[in-house]
Write a structure and sequence with these properties.
Layout (H helix, E strand, L loop, with lengths): L8 H10 L4 E7 L11 E7 L5 H9 L17 E6 L8 E5 L10 H17 L3 E9 L6 H13 L3 E6 L6 H15 L10 E2 L8 H13 L1
Parallel strand pairs: 2-4, 2-5, 5-6, 6-7
Antiparallel strand pairs: 1-3, 3-4
Helix pairs in contact: 1-6, 3-4
Length: 219
């Protein structure tokens, strides 16, 4: 599912090829000095705690245990880095799973530290080609999402909204959220205008997301 965009068969096939081989965990980063070399394209997945980020990454890569999932918001406390192993993507792409923001069951000092780490990474990584900003389709954009969007606008970092848990609401409600989100993006200079709606449970929108990532990595 995607708002006002059509993916060609070639685009979708390229996405499938990029994600047909296993992906592997590279490292967990707790400080900018530990980031891998900026020698390839990078995409990052960001979003509020409990938005379904790890589940989406697992669905995207077809690996149920690649990104850790938890019912406890705020479990991911590092910048977790993954890469593809197949001949199409090896050495050409990093995928970053960023700690969730907005709520975390951890001491405030620790939350502040990894929040600053995320913001410093998003502002200063030259190889970062796009941030996929995940939004729970049941709730839409919230104040802390808009704060991240404003920061990305100011840093001129391209980002794209990905609605998660699309299977949890009706098609009519989802269409309304997609339309409202698309309108909300208009004043944001760094926002990519296409909103993707996805479901880790049903697989809806996953092929389109794979094609989008492939176009960034291989285009």
């Amino acid at each position: 599912m995607a708002s006002d965009v059509t993916f060609s068969e070639e685009d979708l096939a390229l996405g499938e090829r990029l994600f047909e081989a296993p992906w592997v965990f590279v490292k967990g980063v707790v400080g900018l000095e530990h980031l891998p070399p900026a020698d390839r394209a990078e995409v990052a997945f960001a979003g509020r705690s409990n938005v379904g980020k790890s589940s989406l990454i697992n669905a995207l890569t077809r690996q149920g245990g690649l990104a850790r999932t938890s019912n406890t918001p705020g479990r991911t406390q590092e910048l977790n880095v993954f890469e593809p192993t197949g001949p199409l993507g090896a050495g050409r792409l990093y995928l970053f799973d960023l700690p969730g923001y907005g709520f975390a069951e951890a001491p405030k000092a620790k939350v502040d530290a990894w929040t600053m780490l995320v913001k410093d990474y998003l502002r200063g990584r030259s190889s970062l080609k796009r941030v996929f900003l995940l939004i729970d389709s049941r709730h839409g954009l919230k104040a802390n999402d808009l704060e991240i969007m404003a920061m990305l606008d100011a840093a001129a970092v391209a980002y794209q909204i990905v609605l998660t848990k699309a299977d949890k609401i009706s098609e009519r409600a989802l269409a309304k959220v997609e339309a409202a989100t698309t309108v909300a993006l208009v004043p944001h200079a760094a926002a990519f205008p296409v909103v993707l709606a996805t479901s880790s449970e049903t697989g809806a929108g996953i092929a389109e997301l794979r094609a989008t990532v492939a176009a960034i990595a291989l285009g």
